Amino acid sequence: MTKLLPTIQSPLQLHNMSLAELNQVAVEIRETLCNLLSLRAAHFASNLGVVELTLALHSTYDFLKDHLIWDTGHQIYPQKLITGRYDEFHTIRTKGGLMGYPNPAESDYDLFMTGHAGCSVSTTVGLRSGSDILGQDNYSVAVIGDGAFPSGIVMEAINNAGELNSKMLVVLNDNEMSICPRVGGIATYLDRLRSNKFYAGVKSEVVNMLNRVPVLGDPTERLLFQIKEGVKAGLHGGMMFEEFGFKYFGPIDGHDIGVVKKYLKMVREIDGPVLLHVITKKGHGFQPAAEDPVYFHTPAPFETAEDGQAVPKPSSSGKAYTNHARDAIADQMRNNERVTVITAAMCQGNKLEPIREEFPGRFFDVGICESHAVAFAAGQAKVGLRPIVDIYSTFLQRSFDQIFQEVCLQKLPVTFMLDRGGLTADDGPTHHGTFDLGYMRLFPNMVVMAPGDANDIGAMLDFSLSHDVACSIRYPKTTAAEIQRELKPIELGKSESISEGSDGTIIACGTTLQAALKAAESLRAEGLDIGVVNARFVKPIDTEMIRNALLNSDFVVTVEEAMLMGGFGSALLEAANEMRLDTSRVHRIGIPDEFVEHQSRPEVLAALKLDANGIAETCREAAKQLKLNPEVTS
Fold first, then answer.
1. Mean pLDDT along residues 508-524
2. Model confidence at 147: pLDDT above 90
3. What average pLDDT does the chain have?
4. Which residues are known catalytic residues?
5. pLDDT of residue 15
6. Is the confidence at residue 294, as pLDDT, over 80?
7. What is the radius of gyration, based on Cα positions, of the chain?
8. Rounded CA gap, 528 and 521, in Å?
9. Does residue 58 sit in helix, strand or coil?
């Protein structure tokens, strides 16, 4: 059979395809996704689940004219394959290749670079409003998963959309999942809708019949009216959405392209906002992923065996920082019944499944609701518990106001474990956790820490849970280093001196310590006497260490896997200024004022001079400027 997918350069070609041809394209997309996973880790189960939905949407609408926003963007792969990017698809999540999320720089079909869940409805309402003002005749569609649907911003957007009453469509992609199984009252409500046997057409007929029952004035007739309204409400499964001003249709089978196309055409003719409830299954079409969509959310590379099972490729990776953090949390929970852990739909990403199983009464997954997670933790802390909020750095940004108002302003001892603090490599700019040092150190009553290696994590968590104000501990997404040394205890605002050097001092913030030590070792071999400090604390910063480094070394280099603006290096300069010390010989290595593109971790560290070679090069340049060693060349 001739392959169709490689011939598709524009989704407009789908408009002329038969249902059989569209189903063939769906099969070919799944084959392409499976082939990709033999090369590298990538988002998998979520993309398998939206293949038919993607084809139905693009074969019904023209999204060069109409608007389409995917929430979240990690389910964009099928769209990339049918919008002229098939030939480049093998480059996805590699340096210079396609991004694993929507990217307007790649295609006009990608309107927003979406990486955080819950924002699609808001941006779609904005698109619709803008088109109405400009008099544009187009249609706006948001596709949002049931896991993201409880996000506070979604409720805000639906409330606004109901008031504006503009023509737009929200496709609720209900697969009973976020990244992990969904939680909460809205999930239960959607489960009831899923089990409702009265689909939209049947319900409409019954409701129309009931509407013909007259309403009169005496008590008996008022009772009849109440019965009539009660029956309508029972039949109308989407009543919650109707109350917000949306017309509700569904649930329908999201893997039946013909059915989905039928409803997409129908709802476009309806005035006002519409919610179409579509039932899909993550991993659909590849049995291992369908049976375990959590593992196959972003699985390691695998081969497909003859029996259809996925066989993981060998990996030499050691224990990750995430695992060390998880184990430290578990130890604290075993030793202190007041310790709880709260996450926001990232149980699997934060490797917390063993804690959920061992401590079900003190483990809380609040769904994709980071703001609520922090305010919830504040409430627990207020009554005497010691909550740990375990959330990716990039997602914790969504709770900025709650960190301020509910935690720091109240002087409450909430511990923040910031996973993915730093560069997340092939996930790209939506997921890099590069801002947390800047935004966490702003707040009074907040201690900000960055472990130099895995050995620091447990000690920092122990310190945090005995401290009287909020503490933040950040660590990256990578294999953990364990640096052999005589560990010094964690003391508030105190760094750890690994070695001293008269020519220069490298002050490593966080897990840049290992690269700093390697750089210092190579520089010593070249004749430069370089010391290394494990900063440990960003706030309060070790002013005594800063004074000694600036007075006793000819130059100082700070290294951080974070934005230079507002980060550790900035904090050092501020502290030095307060002490009226000369900072002209301070050199800062970190992330400049730009969003960093996706690439492998070694590639991105090298590009930003955050690896051992880059740190050593910066030290050589500093030494050359000072003419400390004329024989050293850059």
1. 97
2. no
3. 88
4. 282, 370, 398
5. 96
6. no
7. 28
8. 9
9. helix
Residue with tokens 């220069």: 504
Task: Say if residues 340 and 389 touch (Cβ distance below 8 Å).
Answer: no
Q: Which residue has the tokens 């050593």?
A: 616
Q: Given this model, what pLDDT does residue 602 score?
A: 93
What tokens does 514 get? 């290992």
Residues 232-268 as b or e (16 or more Cβ within 10 Å = b) = beebbbbebbeebbbbbbbbbebbbbebbbebbeebe
3-class secondary structure per residue, 488-533: CCCCCCCCEEEECCCCEEEEEEHHHHHHHHHHHHHHHHCCCCEEEE
Q: What is the pLDDT of residues 324-338, one digit of tens each?
A: 999 999 999 999 999
Residue for token digits 């997409």? 264
**Structure-token pair, residue 315:** 């990996």
pLDDT over threshold 50, residue 289: yes
Q: State the average pLDDT over residues 145-159.
A: 87
Note the pLDDT tens digit of each residue in 27-50.
999 999 988 887 887 778 888 999
| Residues 6+ positions from 81 with CB-CB distance below 8 Å | 5, 8, 29, 32, 89
The type of residue at 253 is D
Residue-level length of the chain: 634
d(CA 363, CA 490): 27
Instruction: Print burial letters for 588-614: b (CB count within 10 Å at least 16), e (below 16).
Output: bbbbeeeebbbbebebbbeebbbbbeb
Q: What is the C-alpha to C-alpha distance for residues 464 and 487, in angstroms, rounded to an integer?
A: 18
Q: Residue 552 contacts by C-beta under 8 Å, 6 or more apart in sequence?
A: 500, 502, 505
Determine the Cα–Cα distance for residues 533 and 300; give it in Å rounded to an integer: 35
pLDDT exceeds cutoff 90 at 609: yes
Which pLDDT does position 302 carry in this prediction? Answer: 64
List CB contacts of 225: < 8 A, sequence separation 6 or more.
215
Q: Are 507 and 476 in contact (CB under 8 A)?
A: no
Cα(628)–Cα(60) distance, rounded to whole angstroms?
69
